[in-house]
Amino acid sequence: MENNTFFKALTLDERIELSDSTKHISPIKQAYPYWRKLLEVERQEFNDILEKYLNIHSDDLDKLYEIEDTDDSMLIPNTIWSSDLKKLYYNANYSINKNVLENLETKLFYPILIPIINLFIDKFEEYPFNYMINENCYLELINQIADEVLQIFIKTLILELNLEKKSGKLKGKTSEEGYNEFCKKLYEQKYLCELIDEYPVLFKLISDKVEGFTKLVTTILFALKNDTNELKKSMLISSEFDGKINNLITNAGDTHNGGFSVSIIELDNSDKIIFKPRDLNIDTKFNDFLHWINNQTDSDIYLKDVTILNKESYGWSEFIEHQTVNDSNELHNFYNNLGAMLAVLYILNATDFHYENLIAYQQYPVLIDLESLIHHSVEKNDKLTESNAINEAADFLKYSVLSIGILPHRKISINNQTFDISGINNTENQVIPFENEKIENHYTDNIKISKFYGKMRQAANTPYKSNEEFKIESFMGDITDGFKKIYTMFLNNKNLVKKELDKFKNVKVRKILRDTMNYSRLMKLSLHPDFLRNQIDRELLFLRLEKQEKSNKKILQSEIQQMIMGDIPTFYSYTDKPDIYTHKEKLEKRIFGVSGLDIINKKIDNLSFNDLKNQTHLIESMILEYLPNQNKKLNSIVKSTDEKNVLEQIEQIADLILNSSLQHEYSDKELIWIGLNMDGINEENWKFSVSDLSLYDGNTGIALFFAYLWKVTNNEKYKIAAYKTIKPILLIMEDLFEGEKLTIGAFEGVSSPIYALHHLGKVFQDKGLIDKCFYFTKQLDRYIDLDRIFDIVGGSSGALLVILNLYEDFQEEWIFNIAEKLSKHIINNAIQTKEGTHWPRIGESSNPYIGFSHGVTGILTALSTYYYYKPQKNIYELIKSGMQYEDSFFSVENCNWYSSHLSSYPIAWCHGSPGILLGRKIISENLESPKIIHDSFLKSYNSITHRENNSNYSLCHGELGLLDILYNLQDFFEVGDQVNSIKENLFLSDIEKQYKNYGLMTGLSGLGYGLLKMYFPNMIPSVISLEKPNLYKEHE
Predict the structure, then answer these.
(1) Is the separation of the CB atoms in 613 and 480 below 8 Å?
(2) Is 193 annotated as a binding residue?
(3) Which residue in 295, 462, 598, 685 is a FRET match for 582, CA 20 to 30 A apart?
(4) 242: pLDDT confidence band, cut at 50, 70 and 90?
């Protein structure tokens, strides 16, 4: 066995420690581009990441990648894994107990598992614990470790089988015989040696897995033997237990700290008990706190705890079995208790309490994983932004009930289906939003791994049977009632609560710094054969964590070290200290700024009836807005459609928006909102967040509504509101411009405040706002080449329309130069295909969007507007080609364009025929060429006239947006009937409960703005067309 085999399994740090006298082999030239592509970085950024996080320069990889096989100067490391590799390489043991063999023979590629299982058997039998487990338990342990090893092996073995098949070395006549031929090869010592030489990282991982599994099992057995009497006294196990166990399930959670995981032990009397390989002091303190709360309240609320035996380095926990309620009364009690538990978690600043961390035990919600109590995040600095309002709102949201994980948090994923893993939600039949892997064509030489979107099962967090019809909103009153009762008790007993929580001092708690799902998916990817030949490849792959979120250097280094071992990274802190630890050492001092208990004590001080109202509002909002059949975001608000009372109704909307702003000590200068806003630039996903700079659902759009309402009413209140709404955005822009990357679109990006300031400056005749607008425009210039979105909402096409509006009003050459740069950027990134021209979708594998907001139509509209000022033949041809591409999606039968990402023919501004009609109307006018509009333009209007009633009234995908488009199309079509139909269908709704979005395109501001546009069309510019400001009066 050559030294280079061992060398390739070493980490970079281990290689650096070796003697420089080794003779190195540089990686192939293609390696560096491959690594940069892996991390999605250019050369300089690749070098910077290596130097910052791995303490090496990219040139050093030449000396660290491989060594010559003839080089004997390197000392082979004396480690468990190197010893295991030698044992497999020189003396693999293929003989095995008959019962064990029968168990293994059912598994894929079982011959190669035999010597690995013998490694485990040899290690396990060094410990005197065989008498504690019966034959069934012994075989089940072997079954578990075999499955875990096979999971590491499988991709490499399938690759090797395919290589053997392609080279003609498999002689079987059928695919089954071919597979069996390959399995025979797996019995050969020579072939095992070849695999170890080719994939040393793979075999090191397997050695680590076997070693960790052995240590976990023996630790559990040793602990059970020593703790039996204490467990009986604690009533965690029956007094009848005589020391034998029937089963030991070790994969009841992620592995941490060298392969240790939560495990379930089934005793010979059928009792079950949970082993947790961590200090359970936080669990015992939490139990004490629940007991205190139960004694303080005289209501029917009861908070059930979990019996614990803490042994400091590990502990035992009661096994809670999922049991549904017996009747509707118990069901109401469950949600009342859940609301009470939510108040407890709120005061303890908990996080990550998703569906797996809660079990429904009859009418009691029971928390089973308390590691993430007393949470706080890594603070980069004390002051987030220059806006006090934004800072207050961000702080409020960060420590609100939304951060706990119990309340619904719905995302739209595959085929427009919802995905929600919150503690309150039933996960049954949800489509998992990322691809899973499954093996097809078992036991044949056609075996392969395919990808699919799996479905989740009903979890143990639901108190009702899976076949029962259930609506969580029916129990919203129980949840809020329970929350209010316990919150009020805390509010009335602040000093007593602080005294109880003081008992949590010096308690070790886990710190969740990153979504563990990100770790898991990256870990799974690292088991591809490409990353199992040389540890450097795998180590560089793990640097992707740096791209997900900028990381503290020591934390990222520790994450990589733990993942190299095959573990999900974990970090810890102590409740009264601001430092962070791994399971081995203190990693970083004062990384949190303040301790977890400091945050909790501040939270107790801030308890108030106003905060109770705010938190209750959030609970109700999440339940109403995120669950199925609650997606009617914008039902209309006006009682009738005559002009006599419409302004009164619009002002009610404006006043509701003003009253819904977050109240803080700077409210007299800045306004900010917390509501249901778009998550990034994906208008199908939403989250509760602080209103941002966007025109779509942020402060700039709200300010625009206030400004034009002032224009119509001349009510000074709305002018003041517009200034206070735009103020936070003006304060944060300078910091935003210090960043390297910004989106530049009109609805989600830097062009949003430019567009809004242009309008506000004109409407209010405020030169100072125009000067700010010009300054931001000049700053935008340096981000153009970095844009990779291109569309109207988030990219350069939206910016182009905004900048051309400025040029139209001010005729400054420097403004047009920016517009020219934007147009060239868009043109240079066009993709030509046989179907026509489109633009790329970053990070997406599906077809490019068509339509106005994110698609080809919006981009062509922007280019046509530039063409209006500077006609160029290549732009004209590009526009024709783009429309040709979109028309390849046109259905004559549906009179509409097919949106592949929605799998439908939508009828809205954002997607589908209305937005495309709007764009093509503008294009034909800009090009002064009505002939450029294809037959599809005329036919598609039928999709609007024959549409089903839409209960949504938003500008983005509702009736008010459609109404604006109809006004634009009145020179092409007879739109009167459609306009009247929309007006007549407006009706009054309970706006305070229905609306949790205050933004322009999908929220209350848009509703008000759309009504202004409906009744004062000459005074109000079309925001969905990104029209420039106008100062017309209504009858001019």
Answers:
(1) no
(2) no
(3) 598
(4) confident
547-585 b/e with 16+ CB inside 10 Å = b? eeeebbeebbbbbbbbbbbbbbbbbbbbbebbebbbbee
Task: List the chain domain ranges.
Answer: 636-828+994-1031, 830-948
User: What proportion of the chain, given as a percentage, has pLDDT over 90?
Assistant: 57
φ, ψ dihedrals at 408, nearest 5°: -55, 140
State the residue for tokens 């630039």: 681
Contacts of 1012 (CB under 8 A, 6+ apart): 650, 705, 708, 709, 712, 1019, 1020
CA distance 849 to 544: 27
Question: H/E element holding 836?
Answer: strand 836-838
Rounded Cα distance, 525 and 455, in Å: 21
Q: Identify the CA nearest to 305 among candidates 331, 282, 277.
A: 282
Chain segment 959-1016, per-residue pLDDT in tens: 888 889 888 888 888 777 777 777 766 644 444 444 568 999 988 999 999 999 988 9
- CA 742 – CA 799 distance, rounded (Å): 12
Is the pLDDT assigned to residue 689 strictly greater than 90?
no
Q: Give the E-state strand segments of 279-378 in sequence order.
A: 308-310, 315-318, 358-361, 364-367
Single-letter residue type at 938: L
Model confidence over 692-745: pLDDT tens digits?
Answer: 999 999 999 999 999 999 999 999 999 999 999 999 999 999 889 887 778 999
CA–CA–CA angle 345, 348, 349 (5° rounding): 85
24 is in an annotated binding site: no
Instruction: Tell me the C-alpha distance between 430 and 453, whole Å.
Output: 10
What are the φ/ψ torsions at residue 591 (nearest 5 degrees)?
-70, -20
**What is the b/e burial string over 413-427, where b = at least 16 CB atoms within 10 angstroms of the residue's CB?**
beeeebbbbbbbbbb
Between residues 1016 and 2, the one the model is more confident about: 1016
Q: E strands of 634-690, at which residues?
A: 674-679, 682-690
Q: Which single residue is written with the structure tokens 């009164």?
A: 648
DSSP string, 283-299: HHHHHHHHHHHHHH--S
- Which tokens go with 855? 């698609």
Structure tokens at 1032: 């017309």
**Binding site annotation covers 910?**
yes
Residue 638 Cα to chain centre, angstroms: 37
pLDDT score, position 400: 92
Closest CA to 335 of 486, 483, 467: 483
The distance from CA 1017 to its chain's CA centroid, rounded to whole angstroms, is 41
> Residue 909 and residue 961: Cα distance in Å, rounded?
6
Q: Is the pLDDT of residue 366 over 50?
A: yes
d(CA 21, CA 663): 68
Q: How far apart are CA 506 and CA 825, in angstroms?
A: 57
At 874, the amino acid letter reads N
DSSP per-residue codes, 203-220? HHHHHHHHHHHHHHHHHH
Cβ neighbours of residue 128 closer than 8 Å, sequence gap 6 or more:
none
Q: pTM to 2 decimals?
A: 0.84
The neighbouring-strand residues paired with 452 are 436
Sign, CA torsion 400/403/408/412:
positive
For 786, which DSSP code?
G
Write out the two tokens for 839. 């633009």
Q: Which residues contact 868 (CB under 8 A, 6 or more apart)?
A: 926, 927
Rounded Cα–Cα distance for residues 63 and 16 (Å):
9
CA distances from 450 to 445, 456, 529 (A): 15, 18, 16
Sheet holding 315-318, edge to edge: 245-249, 263-267, 272-276, 315-318, 308-310
Q: How far is CA 800 from the centre of its chain?
A: 31
HEC per residue, 59-114: HHHHHHCEECCCCCCCCCCCCHHHHHHHHHHHHCCCCCCHHHHHHHCCCCCHHHHH
Instruction: Give CA separation, 625 vs 398, 528, 910, 956, in Å.
Output: 19, 41, 21, 18
